[in-house]
Structure formats: structure tokens, C-alpha cells
Write the C-alpha cells for this entry.
Amino acid sequence: MNIKDVTASVSDEMAAFRQKYKEVLHARNTLVDKVTRYVLRQQGKQIRPVMVLLAAKICGGVNETSYRAAIMVELLHSATLIHDDVVDGAEMRRGIPSINALWKNKISVLIGDYLLSKGLLYSLEHKDYGFLHIVSDAVRRMSEGEILQIQKTRSLDITENDYLSVISDKTASLISSACAMGALSATDKEDRIEALKNYGEYLGLAFQIRDDLLDYTGDSKTTGKQMGIDIKEKKITLPLIYALRHAPEAEQKKIRSILRSSRKRAYKSGEVVDFVKAKGGLDYA
């Protein structure tokens, strides 16, 4: 099963969502409108809106409230990606220049803030207060996850529990929220909403672990992710955490020495990849 199989049952609904989302993004300010139209060019598979619509369909059917939930989730996701590119200094996003590469950091931060506020106001205008509660908690979790990752990256003392906390907050929280909001748009049954919220959490964890594995196994032509990029950015993920935990002290010191030096990370990332493979990190993840 691939992403096309997953989205097939809501293909018509996704077409309607994209049109509604485009209309919501329109801005009177010419620069804001120009940048937000560029945001549309950066859209990926739009997994989170898909999860909103699938959850709604499971719980009774897609309706206008479901579309509003999908729009709010995508606005928030787009805002966080823009902010992430500023934090990471990323110059590319999905094969094209990032917003900060074209309009610099100030505009990027403000556009991210604009999209977030747009989503919040959109829900307020339609009295979708349940969505606001869910999204506000997701924003809190994503911020805490990013801060924890930065903190642990600096000290290189990240544990498996730390890693799971980071990806739960940074990635799984929004997918979980998407599922919960989709369910909430179609039913008031708390058990169904909670079940889909939990499903989204576990799906988000699996999604991020798989993405982290691609740093050691991926082909950039097919996955869009260059091998070793996480290592070069000093991001310690589950395969490396496991490998370090099961390596002799001398090997641990050697690998940590590479991770501490940006120069070494640039030309020795392949050595770290080989180390992780040899220690069973990929199989464990």
C-alpha cells in the first residue's frame, strides 16, 4: 500500500479541500499574497488534511466543518515548516528554494506567524472552539519538542526516551490532532475521537522513525532525502542512539567526536552510517 492507495477514498474531497485552501490563503497585501501563493507551490502530499478527511469519513462523513478542520491543520503545518526552515537555515524545501532563501528570515517568520494567526481566526469566525483547543495543545507540544531537540543536540546526551518525546511532540502531535479534529467534525462520541487521536499519535511516531531511517538507507532520487543529512546537521535519531548504546566506549568516543565537529560531520558522515549499520541500528528502528 502506498500514499495513493491511502488517499484514493478521499480524492474528490481533497480536490475540494485544495480549492477551499487556496481561497483562504488569498491576502489583500500584495507581498503576503505573493508569498502565500508560493507556499502553495511547496505543498507536499498533504497527509494531515488527508487524515482529517479520512477520520471524518470513518465517523459519519465529510462536511463543511471537516474542510475547515483540514484547512486549519494545513495552515498550522505550513507555518511550522516555514519556521523550521528558519531555525535550520534550510535553503530548499521539497525541491525548490525555501521562503527564507527567497525573502530572508524576517519575512519568513512573519509569514509563518501570519498563517498561524489565519488558522486561529478562521476557527474563531466559525466558532470551531474544539479545534482551537486541539490545535493550541499541538502548537505547545511542537514548540517543546523543538526546544528539547535543540537542547539534547547541543549536549549529545539524547536517550531513546528523549528521542521518542521529541518525535511525539514535533511530528506525532499534529497528525494526532488531524485525526482528532476530523473525528470531532463528524461525531460527538468521545471514544471514537480518542481512538482516532491515539491512532494518529502512533502513526506519527512510525512516520518519523521511517523518515529517520531514510537518512541511512534512502536514495535522494526516490525519497527526496539525501543520505547522511541528519548526521551533517547533528541530529541524533533512533538508529544512531541504539548503535551508540551497543558500542564499546572507544567507538562511542570516536563517533561523538565526529558529531561534535561540523568539519568532520561534513566528510565523515559515511563513517557514521557504516557504524550504525554494523551495530544493528537500522534493524532495531
